[in-house]
Amino acid sequence: MMIGKVIGNVWATRKEDSLCGLKLMVVQRLDAANGGAKESFVAVDCVSAGIGEEVLVATGSSARKALRNQEAPVDAAIVGIIDGCEEG
Questions:
Q1: Strands 37-45 and 76-81
Q2: Confidence class of residue 50 from pLDDT cuts 50, 70 and 90?
Q3: Better-predicted residue by pLDDT, 59 or 86
Q4: What is the rounded end-to-end Cα distance, in angstroms, of the chain?
Q5: Cα separation of 26 and 40, whole Å?
Q6: Separation in Å, CA 36 to CA 23, 61, 81
């Protein structure tokens, strides 16, 4: 799992059938150690996140498991909205 920040929406009127009805968001990965921004990517939103929120993102088969659809062409899914984060 990784930490990211939602920075935008994606609209696609034509897409693979298993993606219909799913909300797609642009997420920028954040470095957990210093909060620095890294690459951005598209993720399916499972938790109704909004732009500007910091989120937990599952990738690969874990992302498809969050969707309960192992056949969906999904690499990343937003699975949590972060309320706080503390390192020891």
A1: parallel
A2: very high
A3: 59
A4: 19
A5: 7
A6: 26, 26, 18
Rounded to the nearest angstrom, the gap between the alpha carbon of residue 48 and the centroid of all alpha carbons in its chain is 10
Half-sphere exposure of 32 (CA within 13 A, CB side): 12
Total number of residues shown for the chain? 88
Residue 87: per-residue pLDDT: 74
State the DSSP string of the chain: -EEEEEEEEE--SS--GGGTT-EEEEEEEE-TTT--EEEEEEEEESS---TT-EEEEEETHHHHHHHT-TTS--SEEEEEE-S-----
pLDDT of residue 14: 94
Q: Of all residues in the chain, what percent carry a pLDDT higher than 90?
A: 80
